[in-house]
Amino acid sequence: MAKIAALSGFPEWLPAERQVEQHVIDVFREVAELHGFSGIETRAVEPLDQLLRKGEIDKEVYLLRRLQASEEEDPAADASRTLGLHFDLTVPLARYVLEHQNDLAFPFRRFQIQKVWRGERPQDGRFREFYQADLDVIGQDVLPSHVESEVAIVMAEILSRLPLPAFSIHVNTRKLSEGFFRSLGFEDHTAVLRSLDKLPKIGEDAVRTLLVDEAGATAEQADAALAFAGIRSRDASFGDRVRALGGTGEMVEEGIAELTAVLERVEAAVPGVILADLSIARGLDYYTGTVFESFVEGHESLGSVCSGGRYDRLAEDNRHSYPGVGLSIGLSRLVSRLLSADLARPSRPVPTCVLVAVSDEASRGASETVARTLRGRGVPCEVAPTAAKLGKQIRYADRRGIPFVWFPGADGAEDEVKDIRTGEQASASAGSWQVPEEDRTVRILPASEAARPRS
Amino acid sequence: MAKIAALSGFPEWLPAERQVEQHVIDVFREVAELHGFSGIETRAVEPLDQLLRKGEIDKEVYLLRRLQASEEEDPAADASRTLGLHFDLTVPLARYVLEHQNDLAFPFRRFQIQKVWRGERPQDGRFREFYQADLDVIGQDVLPSHVESEVAIVMAEILSRLPLPAFSIHVNTRKLSEGFFRSLGFEDHTAVLRSLDKLPKIGEDAVRTLLVDEAGATAEQADAALAFAGIRSRDASFGDRVRALGGTGEMVEEGIAELTAVLERVEAAVPGVILADLSIARGLDYYTGTVFESFVEGHESLGSVCSGGRYDRLAEDNRHSYPGVGLSIGLSRLVSRLLSADLARPSRPVPTCVLVAVSDEASRGASETVARTLRGRGVPCEVAPTAAKLGKQIRYADRRGIPFVWFPGADGAEDEVKDIRTGEQASASAGSWQVPEEDRTVRILPASEAARPRS
């Protein structure tokens, strides 16, 4: 017999765990739709030349080849005909927008929750197959800057509805960083950003050396750049600190004004989560305006759980350019942590709320009628698989985590329903029984208590 | 610039079309959960040797290969290490059940809605990437026969909630067919089934020839087999017709009893859709008990939209065997027809119910507050992207199909809301406005009217 084994890097959840993942997907979708975003899906494959457009990620791509393909079909031969699995949802979005530009209304508000694949070596928390959840607003030629705070608000709402400990959204804007480094006299501000980007990994001293050696900074400039990157502020006060470090000029003032507007708008919508963090740089060649990262308290090792920002060139053709603002959640990575750190668990492992008992096979039809009535009222039900002794049927429900067992009354007697958690049993009628609302469907609970039994 | 083009066989929907697909997925999930089925997902890839276990479908598999894989990694070299994309959800289920048997409670009730891939040449309605929606009950060693009608009931409930014309579920059981052909004196009853399976494609005369030439039938036996396959009945009367054609013996009588029980149970649960159809054979080597197919009136060319049945050997190892009963919907194929035949359309193309107008950028914050209040009450909202003239903002809403435009009152004046379909405008407060329930979220409507504009 073939060996059955898990594949490293391809996570799979047990049914109870999948409920947590489904909940995160549902929350993302619900919040996105409340903000008027349309859900789309794109095909899993793109032509290889599209996937390699950015040029940096070539070793991560999985190519496809039909098992029965003829020898001549060398997958590497024709990059426009060779198909690979998408490694993110941005490349497909760019292609989708260009392909369907005449059928879309701009600004195009879309969300997309799909699996992506990367052929990298699996490591702690790095998967080869994982869900990504993206949300973007794409303009045609123009996109107003207030969209940047709008996307941060959506991000804050999604995170605040997930079973997470306290989180914070760190925001910066390219304009402020670039303006500041220019006003300090740096010629190559991207070299400065590139050095600062390494702060979390290599620390302040090593970055100071980099700034001097690679960005051509004086010791004084390096100190100012590091002081700038150290600024954190929940209100507009960051502006004065930037000015005190020597930040001057139109670009700096515009950056301060933009960042202040984002802070104020997000604070008004979802209080207490946004802060200016001038160390945030991310995706240097990609983002062109406001940038966001978000961190969960006590789980900083996860890195940013939800990131985004403005990019002015998602796509373009001879007629139009398509600027965008987007956010992205590495959903599988987040779910994996929710599960492994016991941050969330379903109120029960199965959807079933009521097990309808069967006293003998001849009366199975009566039990099915009860179940049908309850389902018609929105109560998830199963009928017991066998007419075993009632004690055995109760144990069956208990083992699956089903909270109620229903006993149809024989010979005109009333039905009874038992809450097997409390042992309480009462007369009931399927057409009028009031199920406690917290038991009707599965809820996902923050599970701060001691570790639950995994299984 | 790289060419942007659709890929044949990889369907993609516009946002409004995706709403129809999402609706079908939501209905499937809702009904499955009401019946106590747990949703799972499996990884998209399986080892090639697992995919080829059934031996018949090898030319349909897409193999994966990392772009940067070294030359030695010949994808065909080691079938247990080579990965391919799954082409159905049954092979992954069998592997999942074996891998996780110690963590699952049996009978295991699971549903699974995922994309699958087949490298075949795309044809009318045949895709290379498509959604499949499966639902199965898997037993450990044993599985009671009443599960067969239970699954047919779930099938009937799903189909009855979809925006379809009248449909019917055709049911048969292997026991009845096999028993009948044995009692006619056929030695090789699978040869008979294989011939009869071709009825829809090649017709009665050609099948009669096959029965004589390949199944060794006499002219009389062939006529009886064809008469048997012609039996259709909504009640138990099919039994007498089988007996009149010469069906006798224990196996025939057991088959009649089982099929009658399925008819009665499904009829009690969802009246008017089930019928016995003794021509149904499907998956000869796979199914071992009751088999189902379902057809939509006026769309018989689609073939069966939802099929299933009992199979006694989904998986097995040294300790256990895993019999199952399942159903499967070729979801993309069905959605494709819903769209192309204009059977269903969303009540509006975007999730947004209300566009909150912005009279000038300085008051954008007030518009955002209105939107936040409405969202808090479950009303999907967008704020106008620019403070254009109000007529232009109304046209923006109209172009996107947003039914309401909200005008925040300036200087203490009351807010007003306009239904742009009727032109009606009235005072309103975001905290108490009663949105018509049919407008709050998008609904999917049967669209029997004339063809809608496809946009």
Automatic annotation (TrEMBL), chains A, B:
Q: Which CDD domains match?
A: HisRS-like_core
Q: Gene3D superfamilies per the record?
A: Anticodon-binding domain, Bira Bifunctional Protein, Domain 2
**Disordered: where is this region?**
421-455
Q: Which HAMAP family match?
A: His_tRNA_synth
Assembly behavior: Homodimer.
What SUPFAM superfamilies does the record tag this protein with? Class II aaRS ABD-related, Class II aaRS and biotin synthetases
What is the name of the protein in this document? Histidine--tRNA ligase
What's its catalytic activity?
Answer: tRNA(His) + L-histidine + ATP = L-histidyl-tRNA(His) + AMP + diphosphate + H(+)
Keyword tags? Aminoacyl-tRNA synthetase, ATP-binding, Cytoplasm, Ligase, Nucleotide-binding, Protein biosynthesis
User: Which family, according to the similarity comment?
Assistant: Belongs to the class-II aminoacyl-tRNA synthetase family.
Domain named Aminoacyl-transfer RNA synthetases class-II family profile is located at 20-346
Single GO molecular-function term?
A: histidine-tRNA ligase activity
Spell out the PANTHER family in the cross-references.
HISTIDINE--TRNA LIGASE, HISTIDYL-TRNA SYNTHETASE
EC supergroup of this enzyme: ligase
Species in which this protein is naturally found: Brachybacterium rhamnosum
Q: Where in the cell is it found?
A: Cytoplasm
